[in-house]
Amino acid sequence: MTRPHPLKSLTLEIGLAIGMIACLIGAMVIHTGSMPPLVVVESASMVHDENGEVGSIDAGDLILVHDQPASTIVTYAEATDAFHPAYGYEQHGLAGDVIIYDKNGEGGTPIIHRAILRAVAEQTATPDRQGSDPCPAGGTFDAQKRGEDGLAGTCILTWSVPGTSVRDVENITVIFDGTVAGYYDCKRPAHAGVEAHLVVWQWQPSHEGILTLGDNNKCSVDQGSGATNGSAGVHSPSGVVGPIRDVWVLGVAGGEIPWLGTVKLMAGGPNSYGTGDVPSSSFMALIILLATVFAAPQISDSIFRKWIASSPDLQHKEPGWEGLEGSIQEAS
């Protein structure tokens, strides 16, 4: 039997590998509706256990990004409201959806945090489009929400929060203590007027949108101290992130592929951003996984050869079988 040319064999194997990768990516794009269909988690803001935990989001994990209407996002407030249809819904270790969003719609590294509550405009008024103060009668000017005259920009006078008793109020107060709203544990001791649970206090949002929070951020919400006392907030070039508008949402976090994203983080060096946040157990799990992937073909090949060698057909050869056996050996 003639051996194939080594270069031809190498080209064929590379082509097969590229084809398999393309099929895998294509399947994920079809499944999620997003491109790219995966994001690498680069920080510890969503960690539940410092030693790492499959099921929650750790630095170095790959997360599927599902493209779905922003109106279908379930917030923590809704998922912990016994009277809401989404009651009991959980993703990645806590109630509600985890979303991937663009900070103030300005680009840069996206943020992957949990949707806590949604601020919805109730009463609105047409702004003074000629004056220096667009809302002279009070309220919040939302430059993107359309007013009653059909033009972009309106004055929001009152707010509501789905999943809570907050209805038609001038500012938002939600106490996540397990009575007024579902209990959200800040993972911190109560001291000096600081509660052990999340409190959104007299918040007047800058526009409609979702208040977000990293599971590991001890109730320091992304929208800053205007929403929750002591919050540092997430910053973009224009300042602290506002309530997450629907158009800023890049997707909803779906399934988790643990550990593999660590390879990308490590490509920037041991001191690259995010590498230090990867749990030590993830490095060990990644090493074991890669060793298994590399060893599996060798082990499978060895088992296959032994199985072929033990075949009754080879043990009881008929005339002319020697040439066929040699061909099998050459092909392998």
* Most strands sheet: 7 strands, antiparallel
Q: Termini distance?
A: 12 Å
What is the helix fraction of residues, given as a range?
A: 10-25%
Q: Which outline best applies? A: elongated
Q: Mean of residue pLDDT?
A: 83
Tally the structural domains: 2
What is the number of helices?
6
Task: Write a compact overview of the structure shown.
Helix content is 24%, strand content 21%. It contains 6 helices and 16 strands.
List keywords for this structure.
2 domains; alpha+beta; 6 helices; single chain; about 20% strand; seven-stranded antiparallel β-sheet; elongated
What do you see in this structure?
With 332 residues, the protein is α+β, with helices and mostly antiparallel strands. It has two domains: 33-122 and 158-278, no CATH class; 287-331. It is built from six helices and 16 strands. Strands 1, 2, 5, 6, 10, 13 and 16 form a seven-stranded antiparallel sheet that branches. Strands 7-9-8 form a three-stranded antiparallel sheet, with no helix packed on it. Strand 3 (90-91) and strand 4 (94-95) form a beta hairpin. 33% of the residues are buried. The model is unreliable at 323-332 (pLDDT under 50).
What is the element layout, followed by pairings?
Elements: H1 6-32, E1 38-40, E2 62-66, H2 76-79, E3 90-91, E4 94-95, E5 98-101, E6 111-121, E7 124-125, E8 140-146, E9 152-156, E10 159-160, E11 172-175, E12 199-203, E13 209-213, E14 235-236, E15 239-240, E16 249-257, H3 262-266, H4 280-309, H5 312-315, H6 321-331
Antiparallel strand pairs: 1-2, 2-16, 3-4, 5-6, 5-16, 6-10, 6-13, 7-9, 8-9, 11-12, 14-15
